[in-house]
UniProtKB/TrEMBL annotation:
The chain crosses the membrane at residues 20-49, 61-82, 109-135, 147-163, 169-187, 316-335, 355-379, 391-412, 432-451, 463-488. InterPro entries: DUF112_TM (IPR002823). Residues 20-438 form the DUF112 domain. It holds the Pfam family TctA. It comes from Azorhizobium caulinodans (strain ATCC 43989 / DSM 5975 / JCM 20966 / LMG 6465 / NBRC 14845 / NCIMB 13405 / ORS 571). The keyword Nucleotidyltransferase does not apply. It comes from the Bacteria. This is Conserved hypothetical membrane protein. Keywords: Membrane, Transmembrane, Transmembrane helix.
């Protein structure tokens, strides 16, 4: 009953006119950026961080969540119409969706995507509603050594999840950890890595790093590829609605995709790409129309899109209950919490129940808004693809710079923004994942504080880190997650040499 009571309290927060407006802005922005190739929800949240730092925390976080959900919806539009996923999680959708569009069935493909996203998002949000309090009860029992071990799991899994190479992921993470050391040591009062610059004594602002890496870096990277051939938009022909046969073939994939996406998304190393491709493989195996796969099978759109949106709700489980981001957008949302002095975790549910439950309740409302907006406005979303990229990214550069200066007017801050922008471009250019840098900056100081606390309680005995069953288990998991990619890569090379 407590969960229902908390949800009703959250609903009273979510239906406040201001918060409904924030949710509407979020889903509209999210869908728009999902449609535009190269601009994802993580970049959008990063851009809005410096602009929203003086706004109401509940409204801003509801807007960020709406952007996240909307981005998952919008990414399927470009995947289906121009074979270019707006989000990496929409790659599986492109396999069959674009074939359907070329066969004159773009309308049913977009419809099954939107309805499947609504079904999956609603069921997964129910899962978040009832699973989060249980996880909070477990997390309250954690000591400082357990939290440190949990941070180690987060560091390793985030580094392994983002990007193709674990070494590059770990390199990105260590850049973030190094940036987290900048500023005054809270225990000793000594300046660290300040290099004589007074502005650095306050540490590196998460918003400046996020905007530089995501917005400036992405704009520079797109500009460097300006001669790439433009994609051809496939027009939506025929009916926008699904036939009775389309409904019959879609409802089971929606449910299967949901039950694949939510639990995998909730894992520390889950993400959205794994369940979407897994769902595609399952639908291909279970289909009664195998001859259509590769030519435009509606099951190949319905299942992955449901898995995609269910995983988005899944990533909010570890974010809200443990403070662990498992996607780039979740990392940006974590930065959003921190700019208001809020730390996601078990204490968030105790100290700010109205805010956290208002955020969860708003997800139900955002889902309904997205379903109502997506199908009627499909023509508008398609027209967004006609915006010239130079205009788009020039606007992003101006918006990013103005937002950063408004949040913290300083020449040093503008210089850091430029440096982080160039770093973001170089990381994309050489295929280094960007998200682990932000995760390292946010979670690094938290891990350091928990480690020091654990060692202080044990009078400096490092064995305290493995004496607790929880911390010992988590450290073993972190070690296995660290060595597994290298072992698998070695086995692949061994098999290749044998062949």
């Amino acid at each position: 009953m407590d969960t229902f009571g908390s949800l009703l309290t959250g609903l009273s927060v979510a239906i406040a006119p201001t918060n409904l407006l924030f949710a509407l802005i979020g889903v509209l922005l999210g869908t728009a950026v999902g449609v535009l190739p190269g601009i994802g929800p993580a970049l959008t949240v990063a851009l809005l961080l410096p602009v929203t730092y003086k706004l109401d925390p509940a409204g801003s976080l509801i807007m960020f969540a709406g952007i996240y959900y909307g981005g998952m919806y919008g990414g399927s539009t470009t995947a289906i119409l121009i074979n270019t996923p707006g989000e990496s999680a929409s790659m599986a959708t492109a396999l069959e969706g674009n074939k359907m569009a070329k066969a004159g069935r773009g309308g049913p493909a977009l419809a099954t995507s939107a309805i499947g996203s609504f079904v999956a998002g609603t069921i997964a949000t129910l899962g978040l509603t009832f699973l989060a309090p249980t996880l909070v009860e477990i997390a309250v029992q954690f000591g400082p050594e357990d939290y440190f071990a949990l941070m180690c799991v987060a560091f390793v899994t985030v580094s392994a999840t983002f990007g193709d190479s674990p070494v590059r992921g770990l390199t990105s993470l260590f850049i973030g950890l190094a940036l987290g050391l900048v500023g005054i040591d809270k225990l000793t009062g000594q300046a660290r890595l300040g290099f004589g610059v007074p502005e650095l004594l306050d540490g590196v602002e998460v918003t400046t790093l996020a905007v530089g890496l995501f917005a400036i870096g992405e704009a520079l990277f797109i500009a460097s590829r300006r001669h790439a051939a433009p994609e051809q938009v496939e027009p939506v022909r025929g009916s926008l609605w699904m036939s009775l046969d389309d409904w019959r073939r879609s409802w089971k994939p929606w449910l299967r995709g949901t039950f694949l996406g939510f639990p995998i998304g909730a894992l520390p190393a889950g993400g959205a790409e794994i369940p979407t491709f897994l769902s595609y493989a399952v639908e291909r195996r279970l289909t009664k129309h195998p001859e259509e796969f590769g030519k435009g099978a509606i099951e190949g759109v319905a299942g992955p899109e449901a898995a995609n949106n269910a995983s988005a709700a899944g990533t909010l489980v570890p974010l809200l209950t443990l403070g662990l981001p498992t996607s780039a957008t979740a990392a940006m949302m974590l930065a959003g919490f921190q700019q208001y002095g809020l730390n996601p975790g078990p204490l968030l549910f105790a100290d700010h129940p109205q805010l956290v439950w208002g955020l969860i309740a708003s997800l139900y409302i955002a889902n309904v808004m997205l379903l109502v907006l997506n199908l009627p406005l499909v023509g508008l979303w398609v027209r967004l693809l006609a915006i010239p990229q130079p205009w788009l990214y020039a606007g992003i550069l101006v918006f990013a710079t103005m937002g950063t200066i408004a949040a913290k007017p300083s020449v040093a801050e503008l210089g850091m923004l430029t440096v982080f922008g160039v770093l973001g471009y170089l990381m994309r250019r050489f295929d280094y994942p960007v998200a682990p840098v932000v995760v390292g900056l946010i979670l690094g100081p938290v891990a350091e504080a928990q480690l020091r606390r654990a060692l202080s309680i044990s009078l400096g005995d490092p064995m305290v880190l493995v004496e607790s069953p929880i911390s010992a288990t988590l450290l073993v998991v972190a070690l296995l997650a660290l060595i597994a990619p290298f072992v698998l890569k070695g086995l692949d090379r061994f098999k290749a040499n044998e062949d």
